[in-house]
Amino acid sequence: MNQVETIVDLRSFVRQARRAGKRIGFVPTMGYLHDGHLKLVEAARQQCDFVVMSIFVNPLQFGPNEDFNRYPRDIERDRKHAEAVGVDLLFTPSVEEMYPHEVLTTVSVAHVSQPLCGRTRPGHFDGVATVVSKLFQIVQPDAAFFGQKDAQQLAVIQQLVKDLSIPVDIVPCPTVREPDGLAMSSRNVYLTEEERSQATVLYRSLQQAEQLLAAGERQAAVIQDQLTRTIAAESLAQIEYVEVMHYPHLKEATELVVGDQILIALAVRFGRTRLIDNLITTVK
Ligand code: PAF
To answer: What pairing do the DSSP bridges indicate for beta strands 50-55 and 24-29?
Structure first.
């Protein structure tokens, strides 16, 4: 595995791979890799011949009171993991390399960026859309791999690629969970023991949603209400949102009908840690 820190070096390696006729797969990350990221690499290896991973904690997508400074970082550990799972090229640019001047161009995807996390994290998805557009320009991959745990981010990126005719296949990959159901996230390391144990309620409530749908529940408000009660029963859980929406357009859902593709999305704080999780399913 090669590791590069500059855009010039990255382009030179990717150019060589492309000249050799290789299909370029791209896994953008903010590092502190866990099995969820490694599964994205696995999928990329299956579909591509040359896998690029970026590790860049993007300041544009953090609000002023968010965890940019304390976001976990360990490049040495990440390098070993990336190499072990077969990344060919690791791109670890500095903030100065990515943003050498004041950024005057922002990519903003209307509508899908607004609900859910967009409401409590204003500007977050503009930061994501801007850095992902820039990374796509730098790497020019044939395919890029994103986890469904960040379902709204995925919807934003799918819309972005469609609107701007960016020639990259966006490949959604299933959420990877701990044995007790907690969705893997770099932020899980912030949780205290008690918070970690109560945090399993996110997955439990999504299972409850599946059961309600299977039993024929079609009122979004009922599903929302039941999940809210389940989560609120955990003493440390502070609910930010529990929502049922049409997916991927992220329009509010009320009465569900067979064939609807829906997203049941949760954001819950445990102490200083904000967790998200979701279920994407088709109403049967
Ligand atoms: O999902 C993430 O880790 C980030 O939002 C991404 C896509 C790498 C952009 O910074």
So the answer is: parallel
